[in-house]
Amino acid sequence: MDTNNASRGRSLVPEERRRRIARRIREEGSVSVAALERELGVSPMTIRRDLEVLEQEGKARRTHGGAVLPGFAGHEDSFQKRLEEHVEVKERLAQAAVSRLSQGETVFLDSSTTAYYTARRIIASGSRVTILTNLVPIMDLFASNEAPNVELIGLGGSLRKLTLSFAGPQTARTVGAYFADKAFLSVKGVTRDGYLTDPDPMEAEVKRAMIEHSKEAVLLVDGSKFESQGLCVIAHVSELGLVLASEAPEERVQALAQSGVEVELV
To answer: Among 106, 97, 144, 103, which Cα is nearest to 126's?
Structure first.
């Protein structure tokens, strides 16, 4: 811990420290315990107590590893809300994805919560991998965890606070400057005729670029994705190399397989 930050953090009275945290949440939409610990120079336990107080005051909603604006947390497409849904299924998909990574490979991870769980699995596995991602929570993971074998390349652009991701033409162009061995991605929904969809055109553009610039694009999908549909088309499932599916309707899995893509149930 930086000694200057530590002394500065200890010099702040709790009320002032909480005001600073609340201001950060209003300005940025979210905060992480790890980032606040570095900035304020106090213990994670102190930060969590501050976030608990701010939640009681209605100024924040605590999440895994941090807090978000209450409005963001309640939005159906917010990262933090999606992170808390279908956790067990996403963990299985993440484990299956990481098992297909070889030492020294390069992988795109998109802005999905399943990609976040995949990044956590990569860290835990100790694999020698290069990750390219536009998801800020994955970047935070590597800022607060020891991962000596993993190289992280952040894909910048316009920050979408709702999804805690960088997106837009600049991000897509940055993706286009690289080629990866694999891309692991998820989507808002899969249509009956096999189109992958997302609610936001900027996110769809980035996911499309990841598919085009990887040797093998792998869709990580749970059963709920067959019940939803986003506004924007990303690509057709036939452009993928593999679909890893969990708790998906049998008839929809068969339809995917008939389109020519390999489908594996996990």
So the answer is: 103
| pTM of the predicted protein model | 0.73
16-26 pLDDT tens trace: 999 999 888 87
The 3-class SS string of the chain reads: CCHHHHHHHHHCCHHHHHHHHHHHHHHHCEEEHHHHHHHHCCCHHHHHHHHHHHHHCCCCEEECCEEECHHHHHCCCCHHHHHCCCHHHHHHHHHHHHCCCCCCCEEEECCCHHHHHHHHHHHHHCCCEEEEECEHHHHHHHHHCCCCCEEEEECCCEEECCCCEEECHHHHHHHCCCCEEEEEECCCEECCCCEEEECCHHHHHHHHHHHHCEEEEEEEEEHHHHHCCCCEEEEEHHHCCEEEEECCCHHHHHHHHHCCCEEEEC
pLDDT digits (tens, 9 = 90+) for 28-86: 667 888 889 888 999 999 999 999 999 888 888 887 778 877 755 444 466 777 777 77
Residue 246 clears pLDDT 50, i.e. is over it: yes
Handedness of CA 234, 236, 241, 246 (dihedral sign): positive
Q: Which residues have C-beta within 8 Å of that of residue 191, sequence separation ≥ 6?
A: 197, 229
Q: Which domains does the chain have, with CATH numbers?
A: 3-72 (1.10.10.10), 82-265 (3.40.50.1360)
pLDDT, one tens digit per residue, over 120-179 is: 999 999 999 999 999 999 998 887 778 889 999 999 998 888 888 999 999 999 999 999
